[in-house]
């Protein structure tokens, strides 16, 4: 929840003209996510699509969540 509060505060400051909009380079540097490509068997991809549709989220978002949960169960994330 603190992340959402920080985002709301930042948006409010920008709307009030207190903070300049960051450059594209600054946004890219601040990103803590990375992208990978994964090849899934057709049946696994079909299941991922079905679950994502049921939950109203994208396949990528659900896949990221499932990977994070699997890692958390194997060992604590840093």
TrEMBL record:
Annotated ranges, domain CopG-like ribbon-helix-helix: 33-75
Domain of life: Bacteria
Gene Ontology BP annotations: regulation of DNA-templated transcription
Name of the protein: CopG-like ribbon-helix-helix domain-containing protein
């Amino acid at each position: 929840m603190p992340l959402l509060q920080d985002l709301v505060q930042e948006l409010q400051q920008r709307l009030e003209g207190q903070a300049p909009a960051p450059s594209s380079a600054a946004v890219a540097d601040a990103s803590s996510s990375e992208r990978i490509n994964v090849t899934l068997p057709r049946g696994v991809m079909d299941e991922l699509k079905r679950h994502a549709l049921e939950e109203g989220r994208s396949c990528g978002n659900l896949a990221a969540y499932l990977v994070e949960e699997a890692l958390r169960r194997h060992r604590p994330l840093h």
